[in-house]
């Protein structure tokens, strides 16, 4: 088995290589060596079997409406200068799921982490000013 990492190719890239392969003077093998793509992949592209669109293979958010609802609640708390923790985001998400009638949704720690990453939210701990740490 090869230790070479599997490469992902876009549809445009595959079309470009298929056209270039048609114009290539040498064999498929020589073209494959020249561009660093396996012969089998080039043969598939030449026959018209192109890679699937990469946008369709990306994971989608299961309940984007919960995402929107929680973010709006988060912005409200931010405007009121209220501190927000992961636990607060979990409670907001569960309340939004009940409000929207979505059953079986669990606002796990993983969901909260991914939500914060999607929205670019960084929660920081506020230290008490003037407190002695000895």
Average pLDDT metric: 84
Number of helices: 7
Total tally of structural domains:
2
CATH architecture of the largest domain: Orthogonal Bundle
Main sheet, how many strands, which sense, barrel? none
Main location: nucleus
Organism: Ramazzottius varieornatus
Domain HTH CENPB-type: 54-125
Protein name: HTH CENPB-type domain-containing protein
List keywords for this structure.
mainly alpha, 134 residues, Arc Repressor Mutant, subunit A
What does this structure look like?
It is a single chain. By secondary structure, the protein is mainly alpha-helical. It has two domains: 11-57; 64-119, Arc Repressor Mutant, subunit A, CATH 1.10.10. It has helices at residues 11-23, 28-35, 39-47, 54-57, 64-79, 86-100, 109-119. Helix 5 crosses helix 6. Keywords: DNA-binding. This is HTH CENPB-type domain-containing protein. Residues 54-125 form the HTH CENPB-type domain. It is found in: Nucleus.
Describe the secondary-structure layout:
Layout: H1 11-23, H2 28-35, H3 39-47, H4 54-57, H5 64-79, H6 86-100, H7 109-119
Helix pairs in contact: 5-6
Subcellular location: Nucleus
Main location: nucleus
Keywords: DNA-binding
Summarize, please:
It is found in: Nucleus. The protein is an all-alpha fold. The chain has helices at 11-23, 28-35, 39-47, 54-57, 64-79, 86-100, 109-119.
């Amino acid at each position: 088995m090869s230790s070479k990492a599997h490469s992902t190719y876009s549809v445009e890239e595959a079309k470009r290589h298929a056209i270039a392969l048609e114009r290539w003077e040498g064999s498929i093998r020589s073209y494959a060596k020249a561009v660093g793509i396996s012969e089998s992949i080039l043969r598939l592209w030449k026959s018209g079997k192109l890679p699937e669109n990469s946008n369709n293979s990306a994971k989608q958010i299961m309940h984007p409406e919960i995402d929107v609802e929680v973010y709006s609640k988060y912005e409200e708390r931010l405007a009121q200068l209220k501190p927000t923790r992961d636990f607060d985001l979990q409670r907001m998400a569960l309340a939004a799921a009940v409000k929207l009638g979505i059953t079986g949704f669990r606002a796990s720690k993983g969901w909260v982490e991914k939500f914060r990453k999607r929205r670019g939210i960084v929660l920081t701990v506020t230290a008490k000013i003037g407190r002695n740490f000895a």
